[in-house]
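Internal ticket #5521
Category: modeling
Description: The requester needs a full-assembly model to guide mutagenesis choices. All entity lines are attached below as received. Residue total reported by intake: 378.
Assigned to: D.W.
Attached entities:
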Amino acid sequence: MTHTPGSGVPEPFGHYSPSTSSPDGTIWVSAQLPVGGGVRTDSPVPEQARQAMLHLVSIVEAAGGTVASIAKVTLYVTDIGDWDAVDAVFAEVFVTHRPARAVLQVAGLHHGFRVAADAVAWRVDR
Amino acid sequence: MTHTPGSGVPEPFGHYSPSTSSPDGTIWVSAQLPVGGGVRTDSPVPEQARQAMLHLVSIVEAAGGTVASIAKVTLYVTDIGDWDAVDAVFAEVFVTHRPARAVLQVAGLHHGFRVAADAVAWRVDR
Amino acid sequence: MTHTPGSGVPEPFGHYSPSTSSPDGTIWVSAQLPVGGGVRTDSPVPEQARQAMLHLVSIVEAAGGTVASIAKVTLYVTDIGDWDAVDAVFAEVFVTHRPARAVLQVAGLHHGFRVAADAVAWRVDR
């Protein structure tokens, strides 16, 4: 089943859904660029990270999950030297919840952004 | 539980299965290079994308899923500038179904291909 | 639910858990660098691969899974030319079990390591 983007999240640019969920209640979130909220491709990495993660949270909530039901997050960065910066923002966003995580340095992100993120969560509304 | 490759998909080159499924019915598909069907490493990106995605579909079907039960696809490209091209092929392959998705620019793919893909789906045969 | 690292695995360096599990019993393992066991960033790739995979196994076992319940592994390498080397270590670690798998060449790994790995598994203790 497919889900709508959630508050503040742009509509998909292509042929995909912001998230889908499996019959067992797993929520699969599409990779999110830090689009919106005044973030530009040359905005500081913490701003980009925060915006991408807020998209994740909105999408998960729109699909019947919560911040605490996010099981794993993958952060995509164009410079692994930004690890500490994105970790700090991650802590701000997740507070007491500590999902599983991977931070991967990719060779490039669409439109020239420096951070993107996706996630897996589970539905708590069923 | 492990599954066979499915129609038209080459046997694994190494120590992995084309897909496995969890007791809850989730199908985990191994990353697919666009091997076979006359595709070469220098074939146009749309041909590579189509072949990799057809492998995904064959593998999912062999494991008890369907195109519509594909929850998320990750496309790996060596040039993020190919985003529009792979999105167009994605729309051709999935038609009305819109899975969750990530398009990632990796630093290189095995054998020099330009596109690869993996997926998560769920079984509908149980 | 979050899980402890398991035997021989370093505590997380940042705001994440070694693994989490969903209510359906899926175990999500954080990406593991080959830290510990005398492995350095310039250690041979097979040593790095073995150490990262042993972390995966320890984490999965600490979360209620087994080697045979690992559904999919993603190996991150900084040089796709190391494919054969990491595949050989993979076969040593998994023996008769063949999970689904992706081997991805990333643009860089934290601290300069050459191999990292993450995984999805399921719990067998419930």
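Resolution: model delivered.
Comment from assignee: Chain C has a mean pLDDT of 97.
Ticket closed.
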